Amino acid sequence: MLPMRERAPAKINLSLLVRGRRGDGFHDLQSLVVFADCGDVLRGELAPALALDVTGPFAGALGDKSNNLVLRAATALGDCLGRKRGARLTLEKNLPVASGIGGGSADAAAALRLLAKLWEASVEPEVLASLALRLGADVPVCLDSRPALMWGIGDLVVRTDALPPFWLVLANPGIAVSTAQVFKVLNASPLDELGIGPKLPAMTGLDALISWLTAHGNDLEAPAQKLAPVIADVIAAIGKTKGCRLTRMSGSGATCFGIYAGEAEARAAEAELKAKQPRWWIAAANRL
After folding, report:
1. What is the 3-state secondary structure (H, E, C) of 113-170?
2. Lesser CB count within 10 Å: N end or C end of the chain?
3. What is the rounded average pLDDT for all residues in the chain?
C-alpha cells in the first residue's frame, strides 16, 4: 500500500464563551469554529510497529515524542480495534505549539482518519468521536474540518455550512500560552445547569457574521492577556491593517486572527505584518 497523507488544518475559535466550571472540574464551553487552509501534515505507511518522526519548522517545540497526541491517537484506535497495529508516521509541524489554534488536536484527528484508512478499519462515526473526545476536548470538532458549533466539553458538535466565505490572517508572537493557566486566571464560577448550543442565525453575508461575532467574543482573551500582554499588541497590529473586519484571539492564545472579505486584502495584511514583525509567525489563509 502506498503512503497516505492527511492534512491537519488550523482550528480557529471565532467565538468562545465559558459558561462555567462543571462539577468534574472541566469547563462548559460554547464556540463557533472554522478551519483555515494552513496547518500540519501527517503522512503514514504500514510498518511492523508504531513509530513517529517529526519534521517542519516547529518540530523542536514538541518535546517528548512518546507522549505526542498522534501516537496516543494511534494507540487508542489500535486498542479499539482489538489488536496492535503498526505504522510509520511522519508529522510535518507547521503550526506553532500551544498557540490556541488546535495544532495537537488537529494532528490527533488526522491520525485517526489516516490510520482508519491505512489499516482498512471500518469504524463507526460515533466510535471515532468517542475516541477523539478521550484524546482532548478539541479533537472531535477537528475530525471533520468544516465550520461547526461546539459546546459542552467538546462532546457536542453540530456542523454548519451557513457561514459566508472569508479570508483570515493569523499571527502568533512566538510564545506558548498554557491553557490550564488561562483557565486558572479566569477562575470561572461553578456551572448551575447544562449548556445548550449557541443559536446561530442565518448568515446572509459577511456583515451578518461580523455583527454576530461582535456580540459573541472570546472569554479567554482577557485572562490570556494577563499572562501574555503581547497578545493585545498582536490584536492591535492586525486591527490596523486595511480591510480587517474583526480581530481577536483564538482559543486560549496566543495566536490572534483578523477576518477579511477577500484574498487580496488578506495577502496585503500578511505582507504588512511580516514587514513590521519579522519574528512573529504570520499566515494568510482561506476559510475552509
Report:
1. HHHHHHCCCCCCHHHHHHHHHHHCCCHHHHCCCCCEEEEECCCEEEECCCCCCCEEEE
2. N
3. 92
Convert the pLDDT of each residue in 61-98 to its tens digit: 887 777 799 999 999 999 999 878 899 999 999 999 98
Query: How far is 222 from 212, CA to CA, in rounded Å?
Result: 20
- This model's pTM is above 0.85: yes
Q: Quick one: cell of 182?
A: 488561562
Question: Which residues face 284 on adjacent strands?
Answer: 169
Report the distance separating Cα 35 and Cα 43, nearest Å: 20
Give the H/E segment covering residue 286: strand 281-286
Give the integer Cα–Cα distance in Å for 147 and 260.
17
**Which of 28-37, 118-127, 183-192 shows the lowest per-residue confidence on average (mean pLDDT)?**
183-192
pLDDT, residue 187, reads 84
**Residue with the three cell numbers 503522512:** 43
State the DSSP code for 96.
P
User: Which one is catalytic: 40, 107, 138, 219?
Assistant: 138
In this structure, are residues 44 and 115 in contact, taking their beta carbons and an 8 Å threshold? yes
Q: What is the pLDDT of residues 202-224, one digit of tens each?
A: 788 999 999 999 999 999 999 99
pLDDT score at 188: 83
Count Cβ atoms below 10 Å from residue 24 Cβ, excluding itself. Answer: 7
Grouping H, G, I as helix, E, B as strand and the rest as coil, residue 20 is strand
Assigned C-alpha cell, 109: 484527528
Catalytic residue of the set 11, 28, 93, 107? 11
Active site residue 117: no
Q: Phi and psi at residue 196, in whole multiples of 5°? A: -115, 160
Give which of 73, 84, 86 is closest to 1, Cα–Cα: 86
Residue with cell 486595511: 242
Active site residue 11: yes
Per-residue pLDDT for 170 more than 60? yes
